[in-house]
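Run log, item B.
One chain of 222 residues. Sequence copied directly from the ordering sheet:
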Amino acid sequence: MSMNTLNFADPELIKCFFSQCERKFRFLEQKHEFSYISGLAEYKNAYKIIKPYQGQKTPSPFLAMTRYEKENQTLEILYGGADFMLEVYSCHGHILRFTPAEILMAARKSSAYLPNTRGLSHSAAIEDALENLSKALRKHVKTLLNPSQRLLDRAQTIHNKQLEQAVRKRHRNTIEDACRQAAKAYREKDYPKVIQILEPHKNALGKADLKKLYLAKSLLRP
């Protein structure tokens, strides 16, 4: 694809993200001795690199990142993607990576300001989301910026459980979608398609869909 046919990101959105991060999270540098780096995130040879943003034309979708680093902890604020999503991660060492919400859940605290947010395609929405994040960090500064190892271990347990639930939900959705497609194919008497759709999921089917699979097979026998 040539540069002339590429879609480019709105520079105002990128500028807004970087300027608002610098403004709303300056307290991390001034009061908590974090260092600051920002730019457009790119992957090169499987490594994520950050290129400074200087107003250059940026293909869409893009991924803008602001990082605050101190010793073994990093706070990453990401913005962009196809759905203009704002994501926040707290990284500890080279392995542990949590959302602030997971750490607060482990500490048995909650915040209405922390869910990841999609659809931030206007500057005002970006400002509001970053303002809410800043409020949450200030309110829970000790918990989020200096979590104990015990708290991190608890957050890891929560993270694993949520990941397991997400995998199960995705699997369930896949099965339900396959059953809907198979039902349509069965009504249309396209029995080879019914078998093609349902056979890979045979061990997870309910009685009705399993019966549909066996009937489709029997109807194709000579």
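Observations after the first pass:
- The mean pLDDT is 88.
- Residues 149-187 form the longest helix (39 residues).
Flagged for discussion on Thursday.
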